[in-house]
Design brief:
- By secondary structure, the protein is of the alpha+beta class.
- 28% of the residues lie in helices and 33% in strands.
- The structure holds coenzyme A.
- The site of coenzyme A has 17 residues, from strand 4, helix 3 and helix 4.
């Protein structure tokens, strides 16, 4: 197999592998898909594995920001992992995934995430279960009890509002000390805000993206920095309740709307799980946020057969809301890179030990849990 970056001339073949992997793409979506992937081709973000001239497998890297304890960093979003049916089970998926991990590091990312259709291949390459997209469904009527408060002006928005949306997300996720949520870059947002069937509204400190889906309403994002704006946006969505049966929304697990509702007895939550990997231990530790009042000084020994530069004993130092990982000769607990990635994402050391991802010295477990505490989620599927 030969690996190379895909070009616009490869896209018909990519669609063929994709169709054989994920099922047919409706004709109306094909052009939107081309618009999404074409800009990343010259950046070397779409890889193909070729058997001679024949495309056998693909994987691509989406350029995202991800907040960890309120601090954003660039994140490699792995998507479009497909292997032709006739080439599966022969290590081609693993080959292209290793290449995509190396490419993400070359592009400067210290962390990566993906929504797995299957766990073992990603786990064997260092990704571990970390968080979920929480999709909550409530009867549309339930939103009727949220009344607008104050004089919040809402206006329709479009692609030219991409920068504004990004600024609001940054403000909200920093203030909430959020872990896990992502943002597209400006080109990605422009693409998204150009979806003809979506309803898009912007306030000074919030926005909503929603649409009809049969007799129901789907809310992709509803993000607000103030109580007034949250109420204004949710009551607008709730105004569909004369027609809509239910409202389904991607929410943070502790999204304020769940506390604005008068009744929660009919709420249903679906979780779509994502996996996470630290690609570069010292960079990832330095780019994360931490609770301001917490100090940590602990050595951990990390094993990483895929990215050898991570395989070392690292002294983790956290204070004043920032962290550092420095190579050390000290002794400490042992973690696989999967275990270290899960720890970084807030999975408790007790879980890691019982799951076989961490062993040895227990002295610093509580301090590690406190420094890396997080309830990671994402609003967006990719
Ligand atoms: C999932 C997929 C990418 C794997 O590619 P592949 O070339 O078959 O993978 P590999 O041969 O490198 O296998 C790697 C490991 O994953 C395991 N694996 C692969 N597909 C699996 C599946 N569907 N379920 C469970 N395990 C699977 C293999 O058994 C192997 O583990 P092992 O070494 O312990 O035996 C491929 O089957 C595919 O394209 N599937 C359809 C589309 C899809 O699901 N894409 C993933 C989207 S996130």
């Amino acid at each position: 197999m030969e690996l190379r970056y895909l070009t616009p001339d490869d896209l018909d073949d990519v669609l063929d592998v994709r169709r054989r992997s994920f099922g047919p793409m409706p004709a109306a979506d094909v052009e939107r898909w081309r618009d999404l992937v074409t800009p990343i081709l010259p950046e070397g973000r779409y890889l193909g594995a070729f058997d001679g001239a024949r495309l056998a497998a693909t994987a691509r890297l989406r350029p995202f920001s991800q907040w960890w304890y309120g601090r954003p960093q660039s994140m490699a979003g792995v998507a479009g992992v497909t292997v032709n049916p006739e080439d599966r089970g022969r290590g081609v998926g693993s080959l292209i995934m290793r290449a995509i991990i190396d490419r993400a590091v070359e592009l400067g990312d210290a962390v990566s995430a993906l929504f797995p259709a299957t766990t073992p291949i990603y786990r064997s390459l260092g990704f571990e279960h970390a968080g979920a997209q929480h999709t909550v469904t409530v009867p549309a009527e339930a939103l009727r009890t949220i009344r607008p408060a104050g004089q919040v002006k809402l206006r329709r928005m479009g692609p030219d509002d991409a920068a504004e949306v990004m600024a609001i997300l940054d403000r909200v996720h920093r203030a909430a000390r959020a872990s896990g949520p992502i943002s597209a870059n400006e080109a990605g947002w422009r693409w998204w805000l150009d979806e003809p069937d979506d309803f898009l509204y912007l306030a000074d400190d919030g926005y909503v993206i929603y649409r009809w889906s049969g007799h129901d309403i789907e809310v992709d994002n509803l993000v607000a920095a103030s109580e007034e704006t949250a109420k204004a946006l949710w009551s607008m969505v709730g105004s569909s309740s004369s027609i809509a049966d239910s409202v389904t929304a991607n929410l943070a697990p502790d999204d304020p709307v769940l506390w604005l509702l008068r009744e929660r007895s009919k709420e249903q939550v679906r979780q779509t799980r994502w996996m996470f990997r630290v690609l570069d231990v010292p960079e990832a530790v330095a780019r994360r946020g931490y609770p301001a009042g917490v100090t940590l000084d602990a050595a951990v020994e990390v094993a990483d057969p895929v990215r050898e530069s991570n395989a070392a004993t690292w002294r983790l130092e956290v204070s004043g809301g920032t962290g550092a990982a420095i190579r050390s000769l000290d002794q400490g607990p042992r973690l696989t890179i999967n275990g270290f990635s899960a720890l970084y994402a807030g999975i408790p050391t007790a879980t890691l030990r019982l799951a076989g991802l961490m062993s040895g010295d227990t002295r610093h477990d509580e301090a590690l849990d406190t420094a890396f505490a997080a309830r990671p989620y994402m609003l967006d599927y990719f």
